[in-house]
Amino acid sequence: MSQFATVDGASSRARHLELRAALAPFEHAVDATGALQLATTFGLFVGICGTMYAALGISYLVSLAFVVPAAGFLVRLFIIQHDCGHGAYFSSRWANDIAGIICSSLTLTPYANWRRQHALHHGNWNNLDRREGGADIFSVCLTVKEYRSLPFWRRVAYRQTRNPLLIHILLPPLLFVMLYRVPFDTPANWRSERRSVYWTNVLLLAVFIGAGLLLGFGRVAMVQGPIVVVAAIIGVWLFAVQHRFDDTLWARQADWDFTTAALEGSSYLRLPRVLNWFTGNIGYHHIHHLAPRVPNYRLRACYDAVPALRAVPSLSLGRALKSVRLALWDEDRRCLIRFCAR
To answer: What distance in Å separates the CA atoms of residue 149 and residue 99, rounded to the nearest whole number?
Structure first.
């Protein structure tokens, strides 16, 4: 079970500075690598979509056989967009923004709005006293005491909103297809971010109309719809599991420490090499929270080069899949638990 470090403030700062110095060489984007990754991922996604359209002439079931790998390429494009939002993917701001907007035309995610929302998450993850800032239904949770203090009907509501079928199967496609079309959780004074939602809708409409006129609107829905559904389910689970595993770490503000929260409150998800490729190395999430400017294509090298990053507990794929039922933080036992666990 994870435990917060009991070191004093000076020791904590020293450890943080030591790690930051070790990670600093990997925080520089390699533009050629980024351009190659973007081109190959985009090209392979378009290519497999083309295969699916061609397979419609044989059978829709044959076409659907390619949905999972197509969704994998779309998840990879989302990771690239995510890196662009951190200013990590390319060395220049304009290149990151252009690449992020291009990716948004396929991921259905408004680039500027999601970028700012996600920045809030990076300032508040696993902080029990700051769950209202940068928190979301996929990563935030109540404590056991808070849950028990709720009226009966609110306990029922909370349990239902944490039902794995709802939160990991039904909600993700709804989020990307419908909720991201409106600035539903965007403050009114975030004017440019709210505009980005509407401009993304214009871009998506243009892409859909162009593809529909070229390929047929029904065919576009038959191919792209299942891809978006599967990619949304995979993508949301990937981001959720990065902080929702049994021995993750939550703390009150007085005890919250950036470095410890990154190393113990973010997962190192141990995936097969092919899944690491499709997910843009997002499994090295503890490194990403320590240094968000490390691009995805340098995370593995960073992990191999810095011994302290390999000293953290790892999360197997099987254990990660089981974590979808974890819903409450037990402050006494310092772990995430299921509703029936206590």
So the answer is: 47
